[in-house]
Amino acid sequence: MCLAIPMRVVAIEGHVARCEAGGIERDVSLFLLQDIRVDDFVMVHVGYAIQKIQAQVARSAWEAYDGMIRMPDH
Dmax of the chain from CA atoms? Predict the structure, then answer.
């Protein structure tokens, strides 16, 4: 299964964005997207921003991921 993580762009230098999610920052390639700006939200998969998303979509995904982490083991 592949999983993309929503992240907020905090800085851009060339085709690389510094992105943040949950207090963790990563350098992410913007090679696949255009017109990305600081404070935009992107879905990140294996180091690449693959889709620009709305802030509410990112928040909903973070809530879903947090819910999965809190699920009891069966």
Answer: 46
* Residue that is written with structure tokens 């699920």 in the block: 71
Beta-carbon-side half-sphere exposure of residue 38 (alpha carbons within 13 Å): 5
Low-confidence ranges of the chain (pLDDT < 50): none
What's CA 26's distance to the chain center, in Å?
A: 9
User: For the chain, how many residues are written?
Assistant: 74
Q: State the CATH number of the domain containing residue 20.
A: 2.30.30.140
Given a contact cutoff of 8 angstroms between Cβ atoms, the answer to whether 41 and 55 are in contact is yes
Q: Is 13 exposed, middle or buried (0-12, 13-18, 19+ CB in 10 A)?
A: exposed
Rounded CA separation 32/54 (Å) = 18
Q: Which domain holds residue 52?
A: 5-70
